[in-house]
């Protein structure tokens, strides 16, 4: 098989784009890589293929560690920078240290830090099998950068995202009442799109928890009641109280600084008694609490937090009205201040206060909207 012909054909396989980073001594190494994939969920493992001619291959073998930085669709130039030979590939790039001390690209969509457990030679490359030690993803709806036929680009999600957004607004505005069937044909007609686009929107609404699949009626608008709300917020509180108990005495000053930064980003989106940008607030709120949970350094706790559906409950309740209260910000400020001062009791009181305020606000909204959402 001619190598040039092989590269042309295999270039039709679209792949995500990452930057592999590591550190040996006081020297940082990094390279753009598309031959990276998840290998196993239990235990969590990643696979990275690196050309042996690139210095990063020897550096990963020497250090026994590497980080996978997943790039977003606006980071094509960053991918090119790390794909080009240079004495300092990190010039002008925001970087912060990970749990393993590896250089992580701050603006990447996601980070995974791995310890090499095995390496295999395949042709001109070395395949590094890495056990994932930490994994984090940014809040928000960033899209991945992709590599296809020799160029960087993005998936064509824009139209589908717009249709999904309009469908979500229909559900949140109660154009379809709680526990009512949401026929595919009717949704497509209301949105003015084909049924394929409407079906995509339904599948995302189902993932959001806004609709559920009924064996007899098809997709049905999922009702939100007090019990669902209380259980979700109580579960979040239980996780966060556990984190405070486990980790407060070993939180670093840098971690406190990052927690405050995320708090400030969230607080800026609530002015007076109104949301400036509800969805922006929701993403920032989630990012702050997710980071708080990550301070325990316990992947199981972080995974449990991610499965609670906090954003779904807040979207379906708090998102009904632009009105809110500064009490929510103040309660979370007490929580953050407690962490900053390593004052466990103060932090616990802030977490409990915030939980009780959230549950009470959902009750108020449910009364105003007739009992269900």
Automatic annotation (TrEMBL):
Belongs to the non-flavoprotein flavin reductase family. The keyword Repeat does not apply. Keywords: DNA-binding, Oxidoreductase, Transcription, Transcription regulation. This is Flavin reductase. Transmembrane segments: none annotated. It comes from Paractinoplanes pyxinae. Residues 157-224 form the HTH gntR-type domain. SUPFAM superfamilies: FMN-binding split barrel, GntR ligand-binding domain-like, Winged helix' DNA-binding domain.
């Amino acid at each position: 098989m001619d190598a040039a012909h092989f590269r042309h054909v295999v270039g039709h396989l679209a792949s995500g784009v990452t930057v592999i980073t590591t550190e040996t001594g006081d020297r940082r190494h990094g390279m753009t890589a598309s031959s990276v994939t998840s290998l196993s969920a239990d235990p969590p493992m990643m696979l990275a293929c690196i050309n042996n001619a690139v210095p990063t291959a020897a550096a990963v073998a020497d250090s026994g560690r590497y980080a996978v930085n997943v790039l977003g669709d606006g980071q094509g130039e960053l991918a090119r920078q790390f794909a080009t030979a240079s004495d300092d590939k990190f010039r002008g790039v925001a970087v912060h240290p990970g749990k393993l001390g590896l250089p992580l690209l701050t603006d990447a969509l996601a980070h995974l830090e791995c310890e090499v457990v095995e390496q295999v030679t395949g042709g001109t490359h070395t395949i590094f099998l890495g056990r994932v030690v930490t994994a984090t993803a940014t809040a928000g709806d960033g899209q991945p950068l992709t590599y296809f036929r020799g160029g960087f680009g993005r998936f064509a999600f824009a139209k589908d995202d717009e249709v999904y957004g309009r469908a979500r607004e229909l559900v949140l505005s109660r154009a379809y009442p709680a526990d009512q069937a949401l026929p595919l044909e009717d949704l497509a007609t209301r949105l003015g799109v084909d049924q394929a686009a409407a079906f995509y929107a339904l599948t995302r609404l189902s993932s959001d928890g806004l609709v559920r699949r009924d064996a007899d009626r098809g997709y049905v608008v999922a009702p939100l009641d007090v019990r669902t709300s209380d259980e979700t917020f109580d579960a979040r509180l239980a996780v966060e109280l556990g984190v405070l108990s486990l980790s407060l005495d070993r939180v670093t000053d840098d971690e406190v600084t990052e927690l405050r930064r995320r708090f400030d980003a969230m607080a800026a989106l609530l002015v007076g008694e109104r949301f400036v940008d509800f969805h922006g607030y929701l993403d920032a709120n989630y990012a702050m609490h997710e980071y708080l949970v990550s301070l325990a350094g316990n992947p199981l706790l972080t995974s449990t937090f991610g499965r609670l559906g906090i954003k779904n409950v807040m979207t379906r309740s708090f998102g009904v009205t632009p009105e809110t209260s500064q009490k929510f910000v103040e309660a979370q400020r007490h929580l953050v201040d407690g962490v900053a001062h390593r004052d466990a009791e103060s932090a616990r009181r802030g977490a409990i206060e915030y939980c009780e305020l959230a549950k009470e606000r959902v009750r108020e909204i449910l009364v105003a909207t007739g009992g269900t959402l």
